[in-house]
Design a protein that fits this description.
The protein has 327 residues and is an alpha/beta fold. It is 42% helix and 13% strand. It is built from 13 helices and ten strands. The chain has an eight-stranded parallel beta barrel with strand order 3-4-5-6-7-8-9-10, surrounded by four helices. The protein has a two-stranded antiparallel sheet with strand order 1-2.
Length: 327
């Protein structure tokens, strides 16, 4: 495993991490979840990502049960939660001080830990002043309930506003952002955030490196019944796939696959290694519904150095027909 600092913080996070969106407490049974978590940990993964909204809290329950069962030393892993979508009633959603604090306490109970290493604002909340959220996060840091806090899918301007508020009032600033990033989704990570990696030392723990399976090639002929695109509530993923096909994505996929084979990799490994070539990516969050998927994707680390300048240029050429879509 390779370890990278989370932005300019002193925290070391595994270059590949493991998350439970859709899978734990939902798409996979608990025995598969347990096997995946143990396999990841044994491979050197030290960051496990979760959120209050995943399976309505069941994802954190499952992960907490597994962490408790294995009894790994607490200083050998990092665990996260995210706050925004907690329920349907007033004050059960958003980033008010009340919900930020109560969601943290609930996550600690479900995950069976004394503190969260990373705590994210899962989306921006236009109904809550950013200063209120920053102060709530700082309180949790001072209480020892979270160690680092950050954002997910926030604009660069909002991240900078939160940072400026923290500095002005001597509060804890955000350390990291969790953005959507892959070969098909690049603008925010590569362009919008570019000025703030150095200025505030932003770290990133990116999600969906395989574009929910689109960059594996498994949807080329049909959508498997056990895949994410087959889940009824994820219609937006199917629409994304259909849009790509309409814009001539299948030949792009074939070219990328041939480029992967040139270095002895498969398409998922190439796509993940490509994400890791970005020096501003602290960690790539993997998800898996089968153990063999996780084992294969962990192998992406072997191919980072194989992505030399020539191959990266070839990948850019391959992606050029759909680069402007940013799906």
């Amino acid at each position: 495993m390779i370890y990278r600092r989370l932005g300019k913080s002193g925290l070391q996070v595994s270059a590949l991490s493991f998350g439970s969106w859709i899978t734990f407490g939902d798409q996979v049974n608990n025995s598969v979840a347990e096997s995946c978590l143990k396999t990841a940990y044994d491979a050197g993964v030290n960051f496990f990502d979760n959120a209050e909204v995943y399976a309505n809290g069941q994802s954190e329950e499952v992960m907490g049960s597994i962490l408790s069962k294995f009894g790994w030393a607490r200083d050998t892993y990092l665990v996260s939660s995210k706050v925004f979508w907690g329920g349907d009633r007033p004050n059960q959603t958003g980033l008010s001080r009340k919900h930020v604090v109560e969601a943290c306490h609930a996550a600690l109970r479900r995950l069976r830990v004394d503190y969260l290493d990373l705590y994210y604002c899962h989306r921006p909340d236009p109904e809550t002043p950013i200063e209120e959220t920053v102060r709530a996060m700082d309180t949790l840091v001072q209480q020892g309930k979270i160690l680092y806090w950050g954002t997910s899918e926030w604009s660069a301007a909002s991240i900078m506003e939160a940072h400026a508020i923290a500095r002005e009032h001597h509060l804890t600033p955000p350390t990291m952002e969790q953005p959507h990033y892959n070969m098909l989704k690049r603008q925010r990570v590569e362009i919008e955030y570019a000025p703030i990696y150095e200025s505030i030392g932003l770290g990133t723990t990116i999600f969906s490196p395989l574009a929910s399976g689109i960059l594996t090639g498994k949807y080329r002929d049909e959508i498997p019944s056990d895949s994410r695109l087959s889940i009824e509530r994820l219609e937006f993923l199917r629409e994304r796939w259909e849009r790509l096909k309409e814009h001539g994505f299948l030949p792009v996929l074939e070219t990328l696959e041939s480029l992967a084979h040139k270095i002895g990799a498969n398409l998922p490994q190439l796509a993940i290694a490509w994400c890791l070539k970005n020096p501003n990516v602290s960690s790539v969050i993997l998800g898996a519904s089968k153990l063999e998927q996780l084992e294969n994707n962990l192998g992406a680390l072997e191919f980072i150095d194989s992505l030399d300048e020539e191959l990266m240029d070839d990948i850019e050429v391959a992606l050029s027909p759909i680069k402007e879509l940013d799906v």
